[in-house]
Amino acid sequence: MASSVIAREQVLDVRNPRTGQADHRLVVTRAEEVAAKAARLRDNQREWAAMPLDARCGVMGRWLGVVRRAAADIGNADAVDTGGCHTSYIQGFITMANIGGWIEDAGKALDNYQFHGRSAVMPDVEVRTQLVPYSLVGVISPWNAPLMLAMLDAIPALFAGSAVLIKPSEVTPRVIEAIFETVREVPELAAVFDYVAGAGDVGQAVIEEVDLVCFTGSVPTGRKVAVACAQRLIPCFLELGGKDPAIVTADADLERAATAVLRGAVYATGQVCYSTERVYVHESIHDEFVALLAQKARHVRLNTPDPRAGHIGPFTFAPQADIVLRHLEEAKSAGAQVLTGGEIENHDGGLYMRPTVLTGVTHDMAIMREETFGPCVPVMAYSDIDEAIRLANDTQFGLTASVIAGNEEDALAIGRQINAGAVFLQDTFLTFGKMRTVGTHSFGFSGLGGSRTGLDSILRFVRRKALMTQHGAVADIQDDHHLGAPKGPPQ
Ligand code: NDP
Fold first, then answer.
1. Phi/psi of residue 285, nearest 5 degrees
2. Which top-level group of life is the source organism from (predicted)?
């Protein structure tokens, strides 16, 4: 990415994924400005945390109204940032659902975590809890689903009473600018919610200033973030990459399986953390499944020249196309066959790839081991279900997985044996289903820390403090039996 220094201001040119041209500029937040913003947020957070939750919900409700009016513009900004994936256009509405959901749920979630009563061990002692929010939460977010993945952590943190400082990806800044136009219309919220702009060094500057970090991104960067947080001894929650498998059993409905696998693998050009990245199909149906998958793949259209037409868009981040090509070239030279797609196509400056179905792959290949993050569907045959489960679990990741079997019971039984935080049965791409319902934990390198979904996800942002009152006599050090321990040895 080109950069230039104007006076003391560093400006980054931002590429448009549909044209390949830089048509947006980003003024990088200097380290001293990051510190100044953090100090301002931290000061204002005291008043925000002191408000009753109902009052914070009132402020968030007003913000919801502003977001509703701006929802279409927010969606359009997200679409320019990403190149126009289907869900981009509804990102304003997804943000509204996120805010509205927490207006309903925050009180319940925080109350569930409170306790007031007698100690089980010391009955004269009354125990009450107090939830103390972390003052300043840092959110570092990636270029895929750039608004949703920043707001998923930021919004519950605000409800919990924290102030929030976001460092979005420098690749996709437009939608963050659009959402902060709405934040500025609600002064009480703007006092505790801000963002900084720039690349990894600005992310590191944020880590230096905050009390807790939520990071979504790649494993290598996640590791750097974890090290920086460890140096400061502050908590960090990591949502990282995946290499998500799909298993299709011998008796699966082929039409259903091919439809679900294709969508799971190529939606948003495969630039989704829980994309299906490798497929294991029983050898008895392998050829038929692959033929059907390839046939369906050929019908997928690129969304060029009209971003709202077609099914998949360009690569959001141009260097990602090089990673995908490297995986494909390496697989081909080791004997894999590419049945569809496989080429980078340049349309008006945007870099596209059609759904790419491959066979003849093995677990020695990067395309079966490393996150590809492109519209590739490598398919491998297995001979018995234990082998399929072993292959699915043969990975350093464990974000999600899919199983499509002949019946729901079999799918469930197989799903129970896969090491992943979420397993989609008889379909792919069901992760939205757990958003407000249940929290999950990823396996392996896919994540670390408490869940970002479900009611409990708000608990990441509060410390639970216990206040204990002695109602009985205080213990005397010379007759110290206050724990109720027997006075002599057991009889
Ligand atoms: P990166 O890890 O490259 O970047 C993520 C964020 O970290 C960006 O804002 C980036 O800034 C910033 N950053 C870069 N270097 C540092 C550093 N040294 N210290 C602090 N922050 C830094 O991820 P991508 O943006 O490429 O996103 C794609 C990845 O995200 C994929 O691996 C995908 O699987 C994963 N992901 C995981 C999800 C999950 O829920 N598990 C969801 C979505 C994506 P900048 O971009 O400006 O350089």
1. -120, 5
2. Bacteria
